[in-house]
Amino acid sequence: MTAPAPLVRTVLGDIAPADLGVCDAHDHLFLRSPRLPGQELDDPAAAEAELRAFAALGGEAVVQWTPIGMGRRADALPALSRTAGVHIVAATGLHQAVHYDQDALRHLADGLEERFVAELTGGARPDDAPDGAPLTARAGMIKVAGGFHGLDAHTRRVFAAAAHAHRATGAPIGVHLEGGTAALDVLELLCAVHGVPPHRVILGHLNRMPDSRTHRQAAEAGAYLAFDGPSRAHHATDWRLLDCLVSLVEAGHARRILVGGDTTTASARASTGEGPGMPYLLSGLRTGIDRELGPEITAVFFRENPAEAFAVSWP
């Protein structure tokens, strides 16, 4: 039997990878966490304004990495995608334990594998909705998180569930690396222990620890490397971002690189906050990449690599 053609699962349905277009490979339209009090991304109008500003610069797709229990507003994403004319890929998954009320976390931990698979294949419910509430858009990726230079018991439990969901669906696994650390530990656990193919793993926040040796090792293993800056919350290493990208390209790893904005707070939005926001990914960072590496490599980062990283032969 011939395997089904790879497709990118968006909140409005599956599309051909070539139709994804210019992609912000890691960002947030909705997000809340006790770690970011008063900075919630919870305003649909502000999310639409940010998407429209991104689209005005040629942006065609956004991958929202907000997982279960963090205000991801799966119910609002389809309408936003239609009105702004931008493809949106949603996430299932779970973040670090510190981002959750512990009672809520214990409830979420029950049946984690089944929930991840259900959200990838059938659809998600709003985080606060009862079990009988209508399903909304299906997720197109799994979001998990490592710790700072290590992996705790919660992380290992969530990674095992994510690997199960990957095996059931083929969905890519995006990993929050705390401070950009533990990238090789993550690959060891997901790939060597749980058997996830490295090219199905997307390592996020590598720009926060600009260690080119680790970057090259992760790329050589076959993982995708997400450089999700500039970021107001993590500006300290933004000035090293282009150096990291140039180093990887010179080492022959251009096909392993993704770029995103990672807007995590209301103040970081361009349309309603202080910026730089989602549009700066195209108005600023893309310009710098184009100048340093040329338009062909820029297209690889923004078009070709996301089309491959998020494409799945869904069952």
UniProtKB/TrEMBL annotation:
Molecular function terms from GO: hydrolase activity; zinc ion binding
PROSITE patterns on file: PHOSPHOTRIESTERASE_2
InterPro entries noted in UniProt: Metal_Hydrolase (IPR032466), Phosphotriesterase (IPR001559)
Cofactor binding description: Binds 2 divalent metal cations per subunit.
Domain of life: Bacteria
Binding site for Zn(2+) 2: 143, 176, 205
PANTHER family per the UniProt record, alphabetical: PHOSPHOTRIESTERASE-RELATED, PHOSPHOTRIESTERASE-RELATED PROTEIN
Protein name per UniProt: Phosphotriesterase
Native source organism of the sequence: Streptosporangium carneum
Top-level taxonomy: Bacteria, Bacillati, Actinomycetota, Actinomycetes, Streptosporangiales
